[in-house]
Amino acid sequence: MPKTVAIVPAAGTGVRMGGDCAKQYLRLHDRPILAITLLALQNCSMLDAIVLVVPPKDVSYCEREIVLKYAISKVKKVVAGGELRQDSVRKGLEATNGRYDLVLIHDGVRPMVTESLIEAVIETALRERAAIAALPAKETVKTVNKTRQVTATYDRKKVWMVQTPQVFYYDDILKAHLKAVADGMREATDDAFLVENLGIPVSVVPGSERNIKVTTPHDLALAQFLLELEHSG
What we know:
Layout: E1 4-9, E2 27-28, E3 31-32, H1 33-42, E4 49-54, H2 59-68, E5 75-80, H3 85-95, E6 102-105, H4 115-128, E7 130-136, E8 142-144, E9 150-153, E10 160-169, H5 170-182, H6 191-196, E11 203-206, H7 217-232
Parallel strand pairs: 1-4, 1-6, 4-5, 7-11
Antiparallel strand pairs: 2-3, 6-10, 7-10, 8-9
């Protein structure tokens, strides 16, 4: 079985959430969101290791208050992130030193991910070379210009809303990130886009509506509700 490492970018400041606390440290069921995310990855038998990427000033804090406190033994390194998400993922890749065959990338603020979804994306990547979790769009998607006039309307049947986890072979994702740097591309919010730029096909695995990304107070309330449903059931 190829070795798989998870890179967890969690170096954001969470400005859309408001308040003084970065969103990854907000608490759900009395645990930090980041700890819940890491424990979900920890419990997946197909993952061999985790590299956590956090704000430079938080490295020691996360080692002590997240990794050690919650006994997340698969976290092999906690590294300082960069200015943008793309920078942070690249730093996580570099920290693996090429020791793994597959790389799974998962947002630190997607705490509701399930083991079955993680495994499905890994298994698809093993067969197809690259795979991402995504959901078919429920609403019509349009592009607009600076004055908010519609410039295009897309066929909803062909549009999918991308999530993480996303899984790639190490050589592919590293090459994709290095090419992005060489091309002056710095603000990619989706790693699959960088891999697509290499001409590598990316397969879609049906994601989950519960696999939300906590970026706003509404998301936090929804995640709390979902966790309470789980615990009450």
